[in-house]
């Protein structure tokens, strides 16, 4: 993978995140976990290029994000939906997702995990976190739709410190 400057990004991330999806991965070469996500975004905050993602605490990946300073967002392309389906429906507690999907882990210079199949990877350093709070919703129909049967997401805002491209 080669390093890409942020000014060379061409993706429409509304489309990329919502339709292509992404793998959120945290940990190191000895132990890591990955999960599929399509809630999040990219922007500019505190004079830094940032991403924001949402992870429920009951997800196995949550503990890896909590105990590491970095995580990666890997975009595999729409042709890898089968990988996303497994990583989004199986828990790393019970399933070896790497074996089940054929993902080929590679490690960045900072020791973070991405995959050979990734066409684009954001390597991200955590900056801020908080939980979604029921009392902060202006539109309670959103809470009723997304949180009536599950835990509230934890939001992470992270600086994009490196971008890796397959091209």
Structural class: alpha+beta
Instruction: Tell me which CATH architecture applies here.
Output: Roll
Counting DSSP H or I runs of 4 or more residues, the number of helices is 5
The CA-CA distance between the termini, in Å, is 7 Å
Order of helices and strands: EHEEEEHEHHEEEHE
CATH topology (fold) name? Pnp Oxidase, Chain A
Please report the total strand number as a whole number: 10
Specify the CATH class: Mainly Beta
What is the mean pLDDT? 93
Helix content: 10-25%
Major pleated sheet: 8 strands, antiparallel
InterPro entries: Flavin_Rdtase-like_dom, Flavoredoxin, Split_barrel_FMN-bd
GO molecular function: FMN binding; oxidoreductase activity, acting on the CH-NH group of donors, NAD or NADP as acceptor
Domain Flavin reductase like: 18-165
Protein name: Flavin reductase like domain-containing protein
Describe the fold and architecture:
With 167 residues, this protein is of the alpha+beta class. The protein has a single domain (2-165), classed as Pnp Oxidase, Chain A, CATH 2.30.110. It contains five helices and ten strands. It has helices at residues 13-20, 60-66, 81-89, 97-101, 140-146, and strands at 2-3, 22-27, 32-37, 40-45, 48-55, 70-75, 105-107, 113-115, 120-131, 154-165. The strands form two sheets. Strands 1, 2, 3, 4, 5, 6, 9 and 10 form an eight-stranded antiparallel β-sheet that branches. Strands 7-8 form a two-stranded antiparallel ribbon. The mean pLDDT is 93. Belongs to the flavoredoxin family. Residues 18-165 form the Flavin reductase like domain. Pfam families: Flavin_Reduct (PF01613).
């Amino acid at each position: 993978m080669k390093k890409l400057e942020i000014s060379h990004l061409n993706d429409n991330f509304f489309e990329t995140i919502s339709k292509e999806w992404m793998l959120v991965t945290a940990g190191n070469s000895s132990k890591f976990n990955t999960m599929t996500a399509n809630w999040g975004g990219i922007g500019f905050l505190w004079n830094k290029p940032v991403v924001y993602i949402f992870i429920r605490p009951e997800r196995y990946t949550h503990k890896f994000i909590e105990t590491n300073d970095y995580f990666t967002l890997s975009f595999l392309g729409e042709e890898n939906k089968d990988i996303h389906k497994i990583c989004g429906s199986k828990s790393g507690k019970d399933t070896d997702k790497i074996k089940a999907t054929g993902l080929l882990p590679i490690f960045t210079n900072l020791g973070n995990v991405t995959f050979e199949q990734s066409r684009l990877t954001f390597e991200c350093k955590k900056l801020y976190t908080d939980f979604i709070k029921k009392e902060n919703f202006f539109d309670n129909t959103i809470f009723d739709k997304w949180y009536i049967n599950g835990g509230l997401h934890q939001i992470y805002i992270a600086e994009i410190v490196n971008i890796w491209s397959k091209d």
